[in-house]
Design goal:
- This protein is α/β, with parallel strands linked by helices.
- Helices cover about 35% and strands about 20% of the residues.
- The strands form two sheets. Strands 5-4-3-6-7 form a five-stranded mixed beta sheet. It has a two-stranded antiparallel sheet with strand order 1-2.
- The chain is globular.
Length: about 190
């Protein structure tokens, strides 16, 4: 199963389960949509509507990224990694979200790359160079912060933190709405 994304594995499991239940091949071939029975993603987020924990991480160019840098603005915080097939597969949507946030007054975007593993690229700059993507990135090398402090149980995860530092929205992927749906949530918080 090397190289399969969790979505592909989920679709395969759904196909297997559907075949066992006697469903048609058309129904069996559908991936499990977010929130549907059999969806392996978490359905809730423990820190929703709570104050976001402070952080400080190094960035791509040696700069430091702190939660306090975004005070008064909505921050879209993206937990991801190049080790995560779903994160890589959703790269174009993530880049569109970051670019949309950059064009939206009162909204900012920061990706927190976790685990210190960079897949075939070897680094985030090489990934950006190959794909043409560009957005601010900080590094949680051990993933402990994401897992233990922010309680991220699924990668990718997206948070929208309001201007007063409270986590107001959470998603595990951008889904069928792409970047537009989550950006609309962030814009609404910025008003």
């Amino acid at each position: 199963m090397t190289g399969l994304t969790r979505r592909q594995v989920g679709a395969g499991l759904a196909t297997f389960a559907a075949a066992g239940a006697g469903l048609t091949a058309a129904a069996a071939g559908q991936a499990v949509p977010p929130g549907a029975p059999g969806d392996p993603r978490p359905q809730t987020y423990a820190l929703l509507n709570q104050v976001a924990p402070a952080f400080e991480f190094p960035g791509l160019n040696g700069e430091r990224h702190r939660l306090s840098d975004y005070s008064g603005r909505v921050l879209i915080l993206y937990f991801w990694g190049l080790w995560c097939p779903d994160c890589v597969a959703d790269g174009a949507n993530v880049n569109a979200l970051a670019q949309g946030a950059a064009r939206t007054p009162g909204v900012a975007f920061l990706g927190i790359h976790t685990r210190g593993r960079f897949g075939r690229w070897g680094s985030v700059p090489r990934y950006f160079e190959e794909t043409g993507y560009s957005y601010p990135v900080a590094f949680d090398e051990g993933r402990a912060f994401a897992r233990d402090i922010y309680r991220i149980a699924w990668f990718p995860s997206f948070l929208a933190i309001d201007g007063s530092g409270v986590i107001r929205a959470w998603r595990t992927d951008l889904g069928s709405q792409g970047a537009a749906g989550f950006l609309a949530q962030a814009r609404a918080l910025a008003v």
